[in-house]
Write a structure and sequence with these properties.
This protein is α/β, with parallel strands linked by helices. The protein is 22% helix and 31% strand. The chain has a 7-stranded mixed sheet with strand order 6-5-4-3-2-1-14. Helix 2 links the parallel strand 5 and strand 6. Helix 3 packs parallel to helix 4.
C-alpha cells in the first residue's frame, strides 16, 4: 500500500512503508485536523525522506526545503543539476544531469529531459515506476505563436517523450501538467503522454486553481486504459495498492 497526496501546484508526496518521497515543494497544504502536511506531519514522521526538485522555478523550488534537514536527520535531497547552475549548492545534495542516476537501498531516480528548464524524474521503488514531469509538457502555445513555432515546441516534447519511452513502457503513476493557460488544446501533451507510455494512474499538476479544467482529462485518460485521479483541493490523499 502507498499513499499519494496532492500538496499544491506540482508538489506530490508519496508515502511508502519506511520512507517517503516529495516532489517540487512550493507551499504547504492543510490537513483535515487543521495542521499542515509538511511542517506538522511529514517532518515529524519516522522513516527516511527523499526531497526531489526538478528545477529552480519558484513554483517548483522553495528554498525552505534546505532548512528541513535541521528538523529531520534522515533526509536526502535529489535535485536537477540545473539548480546547481542557478546557485542552489547544498553540499549534501545529489545533483542529476540528464540520464544520470541516483540509487540506494530504497529507491532509484533517473533524470530525463524537460521542454522548459531542468529535468523530469523517473522514480523506481517497490517494483513500481513513478514519473514526475516537472515542466516537461507540450508547451505548444498554438493560440499565441505562429504555426511553425508551435510545431517546434511540440516536436521538442515528442522527442523527449520518445527518449523516455525507450527506457520505460509502463508506469504505475505519472504526475504530469494539465495547464489550462495553453488554451483549448491544453490537454494535448497529457494525451500524447498516456498514448505513448502505458500509465496505470494519472495525477494532474500545474493547473493553478482550475480543478474542473484539470479533471476534464479524466475522460481522455480512460480511452487509453489509464485511471485518472481527480483532484479537488490541496492536501487531498489517495491510497493505492
Amino acid at each position: 500500500m502507498m499513499k499519494i497526496t496532492y500538496i499544491y501546484h506540482s508538489c506530490y508526496l508519496i508515502e511508502f512503508d519506511g520512507f517517503s518521497v516529495i516532489f517540487d515543494y512550493y507551499k504547504d497544504a492543510p490537513r483535515e485536523d487543521g495542521k499542515y502536511w509538511v511542517k506538522d506531519y511529514l517532518l515529524e514522521k519516522p522513516g527516511d525522506l527523499y526531497v526531489l526538485c526538478t528545477h529552480s522555478h519558484s513554483d517548483h523550488f522553495n528554498p525552505v526545503i534546505l532548512d528541513w534537514k535541521q528538523r529531520k536527520e534522515n533526509i536526502t535531497y535529489i535535485f536537477s543539476y540545473e539548480l546547481k547552475q542557478n546557485g542552489v549548492n547544498d553540499p549534501g545534495a545529489y545533483y542529476l544531469g540528464k540520464e544520470q542516476l541516483f540509487e540506494d537501498q530504497w529507491i532509484k531516480v533517473k533524470a530525463f529531459g524537460s521542454t522548459d528548464v531542468g529535468s523530469s524524474f523517473l522514480l523506481t521503488c517497490n517494483n513500481h515506476s513513478f514519473f514526475h514531469a516537472g515542466d516537461l509538457n507540450n508547451w505548444h502555445w498554438n493560440e499565441e505563436v505562429d504555426k511553425a513555432e508551435a510545431l517546434t515546441y511540440e516536436n521538442n516534447f515528442l522527442c523527449e517523450l520518445e527518449l523516455l519511452s525507450e527506457k520505460t513502457d509502463h508506469l504505475y503513476a505519472a504526475m504530469f501538467p494539465v495547464d489550462p493557460r495553453l488554451g483549448k488544446d491544453y490537454m494535448r501533451g497529457a494525451e500524447q503522454f498516456v498514448s505513448r507510455i502505458k500509465t496505470a494512474c494519472f495525477f494532474p499538476m500545474h493547473f493553478g486553481e482550475q480543478y474542473d479544467k484539470a479533471n476534464q482529462f479524466g475522460k481522455i485518460a480512460a480511452r487509453y486504459g489509464c485511471r485518472y485521479l481527480p483532484v479537488s483541493h490541496p492536501g487531498q490523499s489517495f491510497t493505492l495498492k
